[in-house]
Amino acid sequence: MAIVLIALTFAGCIRSADQVVPESDVLAIAVVLVAGRSDVSLLAMHPHRSQSGSPPAIELRLVGPGWEAAFSEEVDPADCRMTDLETWPGTSICLRARLPEAIRERTMYRISGSGPEGPISGATVVPSAPVILEPVDGQVFPPIHTDEDDFVVPIRFDVPSDVATLHSEVVDAVEIQSDGLQEPVGPMSCQPMVLDVQAGWADLRLSRASPSLYKRLYLGQPVQLSVRLLGLGRHYANFFDVSGKYPVRQPWPSFGLEGAYGYFAGAAPSTPVRISVRPTNTVDAAF
């Protein structure tokens, strides 16, 4: 999913500032509220402590419309999409908050609490979800052979004005076997991942899985997958616009947060569009 890149890029950004500021108590936070989800993960880092140091000691809660939820559950770093945590400097912790309701679009949320350097607060509004106009749900594509062993899906979309960054992703890729059972194909990448919000269209290149997607198609096994778009708010977009230009030191610019560096942002996914890639009667000619 697109949030994978969010956390990884965030960690890389913090790493770039390591030699600039040595304060061990500097706190970096990344939170993205995803519309439709009933839980939220928070990544907190001390980017200038040794990896053997203690993780951030924080108390934070998410405040929604008429409710509060504490980030009280420590979970695996993979839940914050830190898939290769040992390569990043400093110490970190991934915390989850279970919510009484799903995150809503076009709704303001607040974060409140404290960290090693004092109070932490912030606010963000979750944007509206983008809409995929084409392809339509259930559309069938023939296998298109290329030297790169991938295929292209033309896509048209409508992006609401409160979306600042648009990411593409592939989910739920499965092979349909002859008995009707579905077998996961494995990870598939979708490029470009970051789309031009003004363009209204893109050619998404879906790249090979393992074993080869085309080997599956050549053997007469149709593949079904879903494409969706994730619209991210301005706090996230603005953070990455300037993150390479600002060192991690006070006073730092606010991207939805006060009292910590990083961002508190919202995101909304489009409705997934299911597509099928099926061999045709002339499949041999395509290879």
Q: What does this molecule look like?
A:
The structure is a single chain. The chain is mostly beta strands. The protein is 10% helix and 41% strand. The protein is built from 3 helices and 20 strands. Strands 1, 2, 5, 6, 10, 12, 13, 15, 17, 19 and 20 form an 11-stranded mixed β-sheet that branches. A hairpin with a 2-residue loop joins strand 3 and strand 4 (67-70). The radius of gyration is 21 Å and the shape is elongated. It starts with a helix and ends in a 10-residue tail after the last strand.
Q: Layout of SSEs?
A:
Blueprint lengths: L1 H15 L11 E7 L4 E8 L12 E6 L2 E4 L2 E2 L16 E8 L9 E8 L2 E8 L5 E4 L4 E3 L9 E8 L6 E12 L5 E3 L5 E2 L2 E2 L5 E6 L6 H6 L4 E10 L1 H9 L14 E2 L2 E9 L3 E5 L10
Parallel strand pairs: 1-19, 10-20
Antiparallel strand pairs: 1-2, 2-6, 3-4, 3-7, 5-6, 7-8, 8-18, 9-11, 11-16, 12-13, 12-15, 12-17, 14-16, 17-19, 17-20
